[in-house]
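User: quick one, fold this
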Amino acid sequence: MPMKGTPDMKRSAASRHRAVLTGRSWLTWTAIAATAVIAIAGSLLAVGSSAAAPPAARAAATGKVTAIFAGSLVDIMEKALGPEFTTSTGYQFEGFGGGSNEDAAAIKGKVRQADVFLSASSSADKELEGAANGSWVSWYSTFTSSNLVLGYDPKTKFGKQLAAGKPWYKVLTEPGILVGRTEPKADPKGKLTVEAVDAAAKKLHDPALARALNRFGIFEETSMLARLQAGQIDAGFFYVVEAKTAHVPTVPLTPVYKYADYTVTLLNNAENQEGSEALVSFLLSSKRKAVEKQYGLVPIKPEFSGDAAAVPSGLRSIVGAG
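Assistant:
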């Protein structure tokens, strides 16, 4: 699960001026030359002043912002929101995606460091709250969601059955079908998958479906789509945001309804405080809602949880802290 970043968007501009002599008098040329000398001297002073500016001041406008996010958000963060954030603000964006609870463990163990954390469940945020957990998180805001669905390979025998309308719970009990899911302890989606299958089995009085769950393969969240697309599995449990960006056909898990609630927070002791605040503000901006919907997310009004006093004043109204 490599961490990918976006290119540095620093830009510089230089202006060149040319003077062309067209029979002007010596006096006129002297005046022009004197003006040019003064302008050049002023430019040199400006350059010297800029070079003498404190490194922190220059970094504030062009620094790097790092984020750790749910593996289901990899595509939208790396292909859409990350690059757009860089273009809009000038900050370089760098991110890493993985199972949310696994991400929390990496943060807690100081295996990975970041400024901002986006999780697919508040349970991951709670694992980072309090002194016993390193006090990495003091608050979080739930801001968007995505439904849990069954994605499938339309080229396989089982995929064709799903495309033809055969109920998903019947197809998943077929002999020989290969189904993927994620580890419940490492990824909220894995836990939701178990809940969804168990609930459907009880509601439909289908013990065969409950037994089928134990036969499903368990994979890392960031490898599931690749396995499906490579023909290694016939179907898998995904969020709509993952399947839609990968153009994977899906079916709803009727008669059950499960979904991810995505949260965002600033990690305490963030290296780039201003940049991290800018990223959170960007992600919760109303302008991002169209992009979220395009990628299969359902924007919601930010729901705040935690210590409001710990939220930077400029973000409080944005994250729903007052």
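User: anything notable?
Assistant: Residues 147-259 form a domain with the D-Maltodextrin-Binding Protein; domain 2 fold (CATH 3.40.190.10).
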